[in-house]
Structures are given as structure tokens and as C-alpha cells.
């Protein structure tokens, strides 16, 4: 039923709950898994003459990469493989557009995300995606 399943990864407990649900579905339907994390580079703080602190994007990308590596490890422990993708931009837009581009059949997201400034992936992102995509979405607590 679902050939390609995307899981939004942000390091939150809810995201890992979503990952576990997606793993179960992938096993049931023999689906491809896509693990995606989005570094929110669209809403960085601005100061006069400086758009953001030096190294901030690198730090954000490193944190998101670590989250993806952890998720990849969980997938491997379950006996599956997954494609990982680190995206930059506005998370809501990326999580609506990327699944379309990859012909994803199901988006699996946590209900709430981390509250860390560096990775804004909060419930409002889940709500936005659910309202702006025509792809099936599973929201996990």
C-alpha cells in the first residue's frame, strides 16, 4: 500500500515514536524509508551587518546530522535500510515539497517537535504539513 514512507526527524521523542511507527509500516508493506531532517535556515536571527552568528548553520547541520545518524541506527537495528536527507530552508515548505518530488506515499511525523531554537520543527510544522499536502500523513504522539 505504501511504497515510500518519509519520516520527519528532529531529535524529539515524538519524532522517534513516529520513526518506530514507520518502521512497523515499512515491514508490513515492504516500503522504502526516507529519513528527513530540515535545518531551519529561513528564520535565522538578524543583526545589523551580520545575518547570523558565525558557524551557526554548521552547528545546526551537525545537530541534525546526528539526529539522522541515530535514526538510521534504529532503522538498521530493525533490519531495514533508509535513505537519509538533510535539507535546509523553511521546514514547513521543505516537508510539503520534498515528498512530492520523491513520490512519497506516506509522511509520518511526530505531533510535537523539539523546542530548541536551532531546529524549529514544532507542532505548527506538523499542522502546516497536514493542511498543505495531498499525501497521506500519519501523526504520531
UniProtKB/TrEMBL annotation:
<dbReference type="InterPro" id="IPR014729">
    <property type="entry name" value="Rossmann-like_a/b/a_fold"/>
</dbReference>
<dbReference type="InterPro" id="IPR006015">
    <property type="entry name" value="Universal_stress_UspA"/>
</dbReference>
<dbReference type="Pfam" id="PF00582">
    <property type="entry name" value="Usp"/>
</dbReference>
<feature type="domain" description="UspA">
    <location>
        <begin position="1"/>
        <end position="140"/>
    </location>
</feature>
<keyword id="KW-0963">Cytoplasm</keyword>
<comment type="similarity">
    <text>Belongs to the universal stress protein A family.</text>
</comment>
<protein>
    <recommendedName>
        <fullName>Universal stress protein</fullName>
    </recommendedName>
</protein>
<dbReference type="GO" id="GO:0005737">
    <property type="term" value="C:cytoplasm"/>
</dbReference>
<dbReference type="InterPro" id="IPR006016">
    <property type="entry name" value="UspA"/>
</dbReference>
Amino acid at each position: 500500500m505504501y511504497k515510500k514512507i518519509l519520516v520527519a526527524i528532529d531529535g524529539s521523542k515524538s519524532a522517534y515514536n513516529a520513526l518506530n511507527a514507520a518502521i512497523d509500516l515499512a515491514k508490513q508493506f515492504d516500503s522504502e524509508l526516507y529519513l528527513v531532517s530540515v535545518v531551519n535556515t529561513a528564520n535565522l536571527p538578524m543583526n545589523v551587518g551580520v545575518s547570523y552568528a558565525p558557524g551557526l548553520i554548521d552547528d545546526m547541520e551537525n545537530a541534525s546530522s546526528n539526529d539522522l545518524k541515530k535514526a538510521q541506527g534504529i532503522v538498521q537495528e530493525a533490519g531495514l535500510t533508509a535513505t537519509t536527507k538533510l535539507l535546509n530552508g523553511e521546514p514547513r515548505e521543505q516537508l510539503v515539497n520534498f515528498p512530492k518530488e520523491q513520490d512519497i506515499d506516506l509522511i509520518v511525523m511526530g505531533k510535537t517537535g523539539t523546542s530548541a531554537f536551532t531546529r524549529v520543527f514544532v507542532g505548527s510544522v506538523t499542522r502546516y504539513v497536514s493542511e498543505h499536502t495531498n499525501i497521506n500523513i500519519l501523526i504520531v504522539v
